Amino acid sequence: MRLIRFAAENHKGLRDRAELDLTEPGLTTLRPKDGKTWDDSLHRVIGIFGANASGKSTVLDALQYMVSAVRNSATAWQAERRMVRSPFALDEKHRAAPSSYELEFILEDVRYEYGFRVGAAGIEEEWLRYVPRARWTNLFTRNHGRPGFFWGSEVKALGEVTGRELVLSRAVLTGHARLSGVGRAIAEDVGFAPLGDVHRGSRVSVIMDMLAKGAMTYDSVTTLLKVADIGINSVSIKETELPQREQELMKRINELLRGDSSRRKGRSVGEAEKVDEDTAATIMRSLEFSHCDGAGRPLRLYEESAGTISWLALAVPAIEALRTGTVLCVDEIDASLHSQLVDILVGMFEDRELNTKGAQMLFTSHDTYLLSNLTEHPLEPDQVWFTEKNVEGATELFSLDDFPRHRDANIARRYLAGRYGAVPRTAPSLLHRVFEESVSGRTEH
């Protein structure tokens, strides 16, 4: 999948419609012309910059919500008491209004547009159309104001769809001949790599599973670490078998979760259970790193720096995206990473010899290094987007391409000077008031 455009309205801080465009300036028609391909017509990297709490992450969160709705609205979301949604919360009007999401993308060299509107009661509108030749053709439409659905001539009716699930989500669940492939592409080809401590740990666990199953080689992981000049010359997995008593306890817990109570088997709950001989031993896995000096024991993951873990947790999904031609969304790409490592990641996606399948990366960042003349992989103005909150607390999304271009301009300097907006409105003078109040409070006591 390759993204063309994403838009959202009334999602958290995005009160008004916000649209992220990934097209090159030369694409003005429904399909590339003059011998060009989609590879020539779509950006592979988009960066979103802005102050803290300006809504950078919200743009990616809106896209993640859309992906999650296709994945889960026909399954896990059905168990929720209310429709899962996150409207703008700072005024009553928008809390009660529906939210909308739209995605244009390329799948198997065909252009699609998919969108839906969701309100408190459920799905109010949904549609999917594509461009088989020279014009848009509807595959299905759904409107809460009219009964039933409109199915295109090549789409077999899906059957019953509840008011709180998406057609595409139901199509994936039932394996619909025409629609399930589109739904799976949205659900599976857009990945997210948040870099908080909890998320880093889960991503490293995935890497360990990939190594254990042979889906990724130790040499590949070691090479990625050497690229970052972290001082690690090899990586390995240490496997430790849990003691027998812990294995018995885990088996007992699993039986209880399955409803396989020992009471029904005529045994007391407290009776120790023997582990079946054909039951595989429970294994604890942990990554170990050997450093270049060769001295001392290998270090465990928790002993490594946050930068090492962040690089590993991000570089591996980046490689997977390049291998599969999918989309990787990274929130706060500069968290615990040196600017030059972020530059390397951008270069991986921009390099057409590495990125042969048109993989794309969307990221948020505070790092003005990527906007400066120092970067080896400068972004074009239409690859740079900003977020800024207005006086009503709503996030506005806009592009550097909206501003006049200045030849040889130092974009980073102009950005920090506030020429494009999207910078903090700081008030350092207020620190004096905090200090004075603190001193006054201690004096009174």
UniProtKB/TrEMBL annotation:
Gene3D superfamilies, per the entry: P-loop containing nucleotide triphosphate hydrolases (3.40.50.300)
Molecular-function GO terms, alphabetical: ATP binding; ATP hydrolysis activity
Residues in ATPase AAA-type core domain copies: 46-140, 227-372
The organism's place on the tree of life at top rank: Bacteria
Pfam families reported for this sequence: AAA_21 (PF13304)
Name listed for the protein in its UniProt record: ATPase AAA-type core domain-containing protein
